[in-house]
Design brief:
The structure is a single chain. The chain is mainly alpha-helical. Helices cover about 70% and strands about 0% of the residues. The chain is built from 3 helices and no strands. InterPro entries: YgaP-like_TM.
Length: about 70
């Protein structure tokens, strides 16, 4: 798995988890959904993603987007 795919999978899991928690526990969890969305948006413009940095340090192969 490349860093790019790992970032997308991680973001998707966190978004789904925060939507579930927002529905079941507290609407404040929707703020996590917004944070992940904003982080993905800024990463598309700047190329910097904290999750990609962590996945690279874990030894994953770089992809095209986060090389």
């Amino acid at each position: 798995m490349t860093v790019d795919r790992a970032v997308l999978a991680f973001a998707g899991c966190v978004i789904l988890l925060s939507l579930l928690l927002g529905y079941a526990a507290s609407p404040y969890w929707y703020l996590l959904t917004a944070f992940i969305g904003l982080n993905l948006l800024q990463a598309s413009f700047t190329g910097f993603c904290p999750a990609a940095f962590i996945f690279k340090k874990m030894g994953m192969q770089p992809g095209v987007a986060f090389s």
